[in-house]
Design a protein that fits this description.
- This protein has 14 helices and six strands.
- It has two domains: 20-239, Orthogonal Bundle (Endonuclease III, domain 1); 250-362, Nucleoside Triphosphate Pyrophosphohydrolase (Alpha-Beta Complex), CATH 3.90.79.
- Strands 1, 2, 3, 4, 5 and 6 form a six-stranded mixed sheet that branches.
- The protein has helices at 3-25, 27-41, 53-63, 68-81, 85-89, 93-100, 106-122, 129-133, 140-151, 160-169, 179-193, 198-211, 230-234, 341-352, and strands at 250-261, 264-269, 281-282, 293-305, 308-318, 326-330.
- The chain is α+β, with helices and mostly antiparallel strands.
- It binds iron/sulfur cluster.
- Iron/sulfur cluster binds next to helix 10 and helix 13.
- Iron/sulfur cluster (SF4) binds at residues 165, 168-169, 212-213, 218-220, 223, 225-226, 229, 231-232, 237.
Length: 368
Amino acid sequence: MPNSSRCWSRAAIRKTKSNRQKASGTGTDFAAHLEAWYERERRDLPWRSTEDPYRILVSEVMLQQTRAQTVIPYYLRFLDRFPDARALAEAREADVLTLWSGLGYYARARNLQRAARAVVAAGAFPRDYDRIRELPGVGPYTAAAVASIAFGAPHAVVDGNVLRVISRVQDDAGDIQSPRTRARFQQIADGWLEGRRPGLFNQAMMELGATVCLPRGPRCTVCPVETFCQAHQTGRQHELPVKGGKRVADRIHVQVMIAVRNGSVLLRRRSAAETLMAGFWELPAPGDLPGCRSSRVIGSFRHSITHHHYTITVLEGAVPAVPLGFHWRRINRLAGVPLTTITRKALGLMASAPGAERAVATHGRKHG
Ligand code: SF4
């Protein structure tokens, strides 16, 4: 691989780090854009007109694994029959299950009734995250939703929708099934939420994931946070989030320079210490050649090594002096020289290009 690609990799790592810092540094702007959009565009859903923790809990439990439009009639009928925690706590289980019938996952209904009984036994709905989390059937996501929407507690909700949004906005290819990635994304979401109105911010994130940043067809052209979204900028939004360790391909752009003089081409031998293609000969990158002048772009091609996808642009140019480590190699003797695959493809491209240095057509045999 050309030297420039190694430089690029280091630069890319620096860029990625700086982008991550930038994303966290712009958390306030990100949140402000998101919330303004949410207040403008949000769907009119019945659970959005209340701050009653019981009603919010009912909606969040019903919305687990079920679409909002499906939930609406069930939610309205359920609350008509059981308007508060006491009514639900005192109901016959058969009546609860009848009203739940059609929503599926009946353990949710039983747990909801157990939660209502715990609330009645406690004398009031718990106000803080940890105590809400202790209610039967209430996980971290539901607890964060109820605590933030009903009580303004600063806990970011992180469910599948939110994981998807974060992985794309951050262009983060971490496996969202891994606890470490989830903990990192939780930190990011908590950072974005800092200083905001927690309930508003959380609902805006959920709405973005449910209506705009869709799993298979993200609607980036109408997205309120498109300018903050790094995956959109790199074009990787369709590859994210990563689930189950599937790696996202790295796309890398590099340039190589073909300098020809008196029937020879300028090459460098890769050091024996290289992990890839040690001892093979390769073309320089323009950055390797101080003072070089590029006269034209010959063309470009793609080359993949495992999950690295390279796009190589081949330039033709002249060098004022030969830098240390480079040598002129006779073009008509390259058949006996081990060339890297990228170099072989680049020389082949030049040989087939109009107006090419025809002698290059005799370039070397296949290696690597
Ligand atoms: S720009 Fe596209 S990928 Fe990024 S958050 Fe918006 S919808 Fe999702």
